[in-house]
Design goal:
Layout (H helix, E strand, L loop, with lengths): L5 H22 L3 H9 L6 H5 L2 E5 L11 H13 L2 E4 L4 H10 L4 E5 L4 E5 L5 E3 H16 L8 E4 L3 H12 L4 E4 L13 E2 L8 E6 L12 E8 L9 H6 L2 E3 L4 H11 L6
Helix pairs in contact: 1-4, 2-6, 2-9, 4-9, 6-7, 6-9
The chain binds N~5~-D-lysyl-L-ornithine.
């Protein structure tokens, strides 16, 4: 699993308004609407969101804090979801306790392996991996006006790939997938393994891997779409030039998809 960096946080902070515009240009929707679409949840009215408090708890375990990580997550939630998001003064278990004492509606926290969002009212929980996969699948699906005319290749069969797989399977979109392990702990087996994926060009690709620059121009149809939650970015410059659309962000789509998964159904 790739660890995000403070440099990632700096670029996210600078591009937030631009990202909203870029995603709206290709989907016709705001990031909040995209995230609701990804999670299949109803749009929360602004008045409800403005009353919702979200505690982001910094976690020092494992490799420790990433500079500006918690602040950036809180900023994303304030900017795109209009909630009252704040970083707790304390970390780890003390931080979780602080969130409870301050009566937060939702809590977000991440260590090196798990990144989760929990609704303290309803108990609803979202895992970043699955939510991110659904979010990037929704971005690809919406950018094609919900009418994909070719199968989707999902590269990487971890949580992110599995989230994308289930999003497309639920919409009866034909799927092929590949993972270096040629296996998956998740139920993706009803779709065909594309062992020879490098031997052809694909119109729709989800890069849910942690491999750097391995998808090259011959694997992409001219004008095709690549939706790339994977970190680091896995697409060569030649492939980017050949594709019609490349969608990528490190944190925003995942955090917003998680938020929409847990903050729904009158639980707030
Ligand atoms: O609180 C902090 O500042 C850190 N403990 C944040 C750690 C963030 N975690 C990562 O970047 C992980 N490598 C990935 C989390 C799961 C993403 N699917």
């Amino acid at each position: 699993m790739t660890r995000l960096s403070t440099e990632n946080m700096n670029s996210i902070n600078q591009r937030l308004p631009l990202l909203e515009e870029a995603y709206r240009a290709v989907t016709g929707k705001s990031l909040l609407e995209i995230a609701h679409f990804a999670s299949g949840t109803e749009y929360l009215p602004l008045a409800v969101r403005q009353k919702t408090s979200v505690a982001v708890v910094p976690i020092t375990a494992g490799e420790g804090l990433i500079g500006d990580f918690s602040e950036t997550v809180a900023l994303i939630l304030r900017e795109f979801a209009d909630v009252q998001a704040y970083v707790t003064d304390t970390t780890d278990v003390a931080g979780l306790n602080e969130a409870i004492v301050r009566d937060a509606d939702l809590v977000f926290m991440a260590d090196d392996n798990v990144c989760l969002f929990r609704n303290l009212r309803t108990g609803a929980t979202s895992d970043n991996g699955f939510a991110t996969g659904r979010g990037f699948a929704a971005l690809l699906y919406l950018s094609a006006q919900q009418a994909l005319d070719s199968e989707v290749l999902i590269l990487g069969a971890g949580k992110v790939g599995s989230g994308a797989y289930h999003f497309f399977r639920d919409r009866h979109v034909p799927i092929r997938w590949y993972d270096l392990k040629e296996s998956t702990p998740f139920d993706m087996e009803s779709a065909l393994l594309a062992r020879d994926w490098q031997g052809q060009a694909w119109k729709y690709i989800i890069d849910a891997t942690t491999c750097p620059t391995f998808i090259d121009a011959p694997q992409v149809c001219a004008g095709g779409t690549i939706s790339a939650p994977g970190i680091p970015f896995g697409i060569t410059e030649a492939a980017v030039q050949k594709a019609g659309l490349v969608i990528h962000d490190e944190l925003e789509t995942g955090v917003m998809s998680m938020f929409c998964e847990v903050a729904h159904n009158g639980g707030l």
